[in-house]
Design goal:
The chain is built from ten helices and eleven strands. It has 413 residues and is an alpha/beta fold. The longest helix is centred in the middle third of the chain and has 29 residues.
Length: 413
């Protein structure tokens, strides 16, 4: 059988990949009169101890909680949301797979994930940048349309390298060969799959359709990489971070978020998902002698709660630094924070009991009227996917529903 030309294949399935917007064949950017909107999602898989995170009062005059005192000077730059969760998403730690997808029952045998909200967004606003989206951190939050996890970049040093270091001519030639090999493999796979499709039963058609979706997405990524290979990477006045490990959770998270800021600032991407670490190792912070995961199952033990507090205070501190850095970075007619929606949350509302309800959620930036504790029913939770719909619409997407949403988020201005 004659090999199917990949360009004909792309046209045949209706995929249109526009050329990136280039400025003198250099770094892609929008004109100064355009506003570039961006999306960042951060998941802390072990969450926060609820009594220290959630205020006891609501509205715009809420009294700051213990953990959020470090963010009091940014009070008008974020909204605290309580009483939300993903309907039918249970399974304790398995729920991290559903943080951006809201796919139900992630711990069940035969669970199949769905597309994550960041990838819905990336399909709409990611084509003009070198990277349509970035999946980074300890675990991936990003899932394709056929429910396949997008591999994450674990090392902040490697992330910096991918974004800003070009490499020598030999390395570029090797990259060109890898891309050419990738295209050859895709052509071969398509030829075999097309031959197989004529012989399979109707019951297998759905699986084959999902397979072709994965092939099309891979083809799109390879084609885009081809286009960008000879485009110079942006130059930044920053040093490559040390290749720290996630056990040093504070510095490792800080490095990832700082590189993320640089990626947004240079318009290398407009969509980022970061899965923070939630491992069982002892975090190298003063006064911490037990493993992080073990401390999250504190059973109200005072010393364990004290040690857990050291870690969770550190994570809030790093988030505050990130939000402040976005606010301090000029962008068009405002700041990077004005034009970036930053979602911080967790798949667990109470890690000690593996509860997936009443999730801790902070929404910063993006031009909302912040400064409030938006509280819903802590027992009969409001659907968190409604927030995703609001965020997508804020980015200009014409989306009315996502997963188990019932509309946009009430009370979010």
């Amino acid at each position: 059988m004659k090999s199917l030309n990949r360009r004909h294949f792309l046209r045949g399935v209706g995929v249109s990949l526009a050329l990136p917007i280039l400025e003198s064949r250099g770094t892609p950017s929008a004109s100064s009169s355009d506003t570039i909107n961006r999306f960042v999602a951060i998941n802390l898989p072990l969450g926060f101890h609820p009594p220290r995170f959630f205020p006891t009062t609501t509205g715009r005059d809420y009294q700051t909680s213990e953990y959020l005192k470090a963010a009091d000077h940014l009070r008008n730059d974020f909204t605290l949301i309580s009483g939300t969760s993903h309907p039918e998403v249970d399974g304790g730690h398995s729920a991290e797979k559903s943080f951006l997808t809201a796919a139900p029952h992630p711990a069940e045998r035969g669970f199949k994930n769905r597309i994550s909200v960041d990838q819905v967004i990336a399909k709409q606003i990611g084509d003009s940048t070198r990277f349509a989206s970035l999946s980074i951190g300890d675990h991936s939050l990003s899932w394709t349309a056929n429910g396949v996890s997008i591999p994450q970049v674990i090392s902040p040093a490697l992330l910096f390298n991918n974004l800003f270091l070009t490499g020598n001519e030999w390395e570029l030639q090797q990259r060109r060969k890898q891309l050419a090999d990738g295209h050859s493999i895709i052509d071969s796979v398509l030829e075999e799959a097309n031959a197989m499709k004529r012989e399979i039963s109707r019951a297998d058609q759905e699986k084959m359709d999902q397979y072709f979706t994965a092939v099309r997405e891979t083809e799109g990524r390879l084609t885009k990489a081809d286009r960008w290979l000879d485009t110079p990477k942006p130059k930044v006045e920053a040093q490559q971070p040390k290749d720290s490990r996630s056990i040093d959770i504070e510095e490792w998270t800080r490095s990832h978020l700082e590189v993320s800021r640089l990626a947004l600032m240079t318009d290398s991407t407009r969509v980022i998902s970061f899965g923070a670490a939630g491992h069982g190792s002892v975090v190298p912070l003063p006064g911490v002698t037990m493993g992080y995961h073990g401390l999250s199952h504190h059973g109200k033990n005072p010393d364990m709660l004290r040690q857990l507090g050291v870690i969770e205070h550190a994570m809030i501190k790093v988030w505050v630094e990130f939000i402040q850095s976005l606010k301090d970075t000029p962008d068009g007619d405002g700041t990077l924070l004005d034009h970036t929606q930053v979602l911080l949350g967790s798949n667990l509302g109470n890690a000690s009991g593996h509860l997936t309800t009443n999730l801790p959620i902070l929404l910063a930036g993006g031009g909302y009227q912040h400064g409030q504790h938006l509280a819903f029913d802590s027992k009969n939770n409001y659907p968190l996917p409604n927030l995703f719909v609001s965020m997508m619409q804020r980015l200009g997407l014409e989306e009315e529903r996502f997963a188990s949403s019932t509309g946009t988020m009430t009370g979010l201005s």
